[in-house]
Amino acid sequence: MGSTVDVLSEQPWGKTYYERRKGWCYSFFDGNSKTPVDIYAQFKLIPDSPGSYWFRGDIVVFGDGYHNNFLRRHDWRKWFMKKEDYLNSLHNDKNVVRNETIPLYARTEYGMIVARYKWIKDKVWKVFYDYGMADKDCLSCHDNPEIKSSVDGRSLFVNYTDLKGSRHDNIACSQCHSEVNVSKHRPCETITQKVDCTSCHAEVGVEYAKSTHGTLFANNDNNAPTCKECHGTHGILGKLNPQSPTFATNIPTLCARCHREGEKAAVRYTGTEKDIIKHYTESIHGKGLLKSGLTVTATCTDCHTAHMELPHTNPESSINPKNVAETCGKCHHGIEEQFVKSIHSPLISDTDKQLPGCADCHSAHTIKRTDAEGFKLEIMDQCGRCHEKIAATYFDTYHGKVSQLGYTKTAKCYDCHGAHDILPPTDPRSRLSRDNVVNTCKTCHPSANRQFAGYLTHATHHDPDKYPFLFWTFWGMTGLLIGTFFIAGLHTLLWLPRSLQWRRKLKSMHIEEETFPDENQTEESEGENT
């Protein structure tokens, strides 16, 4: 930042040490105190470049001391140098030393407190930057479209118009490229590190470091996306700007750069989801976003988050089975309220079996309208993946057989049990409880009564323990039917030889009559005369 900061702090309750990093100074305090802690730090600034400065400081509380369990943040800004002091320093050619005591307050019960602070030049006094390290100094070289790196030949041209139209229009070059040294002929020759966005966006940096993307970056993987790949460099725009790559309708295209089939992320992916981008664009979310322009519909970042993408097996992942209902509930809050009270919710069911979540029934990227004919027929198979035996009994009933023929107006699983508010029949709130079952049947059968509702929808002749009468009746009738056919068949087989014998005898008699018709007639006439 072109300044030297000496920090004097006295803390009676813990150890303090300091580190200079990318323009920020950090103070780490042992956070074992269980009472509110006031941190008072005295700062002495010796400016080595003219201009005005803001003091900016905040308190970040971490659970384990390195970017975890962010609890609270407070931000202070305060003038350090007045215009008169600045002018005096120019005329007298002396450094102005001004002591300030800034109280930074935090409350913690565990972990570590990190206090950070830095001095930021203010754009209001931009007129005085001509005397020091200002954007103008950088543009003396980087405003040239032909300028290239002598190391790898990449362009070093900076379109200042893009920068001034970006979210960082009030940020000087030296605030991001903080290693510049105005005393050098080429101030940027002292730069050894890439721009560290976390110097201002600390919370985002914490999330990124824990994400899959951040882990790849920490391992120096060339496939790791960094801030600039998604947000750009000098022309960064806010996510509410339609021209921004992070605007809602542009996010699928942005993520597709790596996650479309054949791209670097899709190639290394070993999961079961394929053609993710294609399926998303064809889903109800994709159509709502890309065809209808509904920017409130779910995009990649709404489900996977923007900076903390983690695999579904990670308990902290937004798409972990235990968290996915909460993730979907950001948009479908009413449905989430029903689901968390249902038998499928991990908050209700204490079981070692895997409980179904939103993605198990609706899928992850191929989500369809629930009133679509295809979805109504497919959902029965989804239920059958877990409730295999019960699904088999359903397909033995009238409802199930008609549904198999493609008729969607007959009762499906969700018509009786509910979709997101499924409860056991013993629960008074259940649609199938004694008090509610008649009304449930009336949704399709308006004249239904208590006797009608006594119909055993899942009764099956395959279960002798639960339905013994039906079981023995079915097998008794089946045995009778088989016995009848067996006896009839045996009788037919025994009768067949004699039937064939009679057939041959009748055939021979018929042939004899046709061969000697006159003799037969003579015998008949003689018999008449006699």
Explain this structure.
This protein has helices at 83-92, 135-142, 160-164, 173-176, 202-210, 212-218, 227-231, 251-259, 264-268, 276-282, 284-290, 300-304, 324-329, 333-339, 358-362, 373-386, 388-394, 398-404, 413-417, 437-442, 450-453, 468-515, 517-529, and strands at residues 3-9, 16-21, 24-30, 37-47, 53-62, 73-79, 98-106, 112-121. It is elongated. It contains 23 helices and eight strands. Among the domains are: 1-130, Jelly Rolls (Sandwich); 310-367, no CATH class; 368-460, no CATH class; 469-529. The protein has 530 residues and is of the alpha+beta class. The strands form two sheets. It has a five-stranded antiparallel β-sheet, with no helix packed on it. A three-stranded antiparallel β-sheet has the order 1-4-7, with no helix packed on it. Helix content is 38%, strand content 13%.
The unreliable regions are: 1-132
CA-CA gap between termini? 150 Å
The oligomeric status of these chains comes to: single chain
Shape: elongated
Radius of gyration: 41 Å
Number of helices: 23
Number of strands: 8
Overall pLDDT: 76
CATH domain fold name of the domain at 1-130: Jelly Rolls
Strand order of the largest sheet: 2-3-8-5-6
Q: Provide the β-strand percentage band.
A: 5-15%
Task: Return the structural class.
Answer: alpha+beta
Query: What portion of residues is helical?
Result: 25-40%
Most strands sheet: 5 strands, antiparallel
Instruction: Assign the CATH architecture of the domain at 1-130.
Output: Sandwich
CATH level-1 class of the domain at 1-130: Mainly Beta
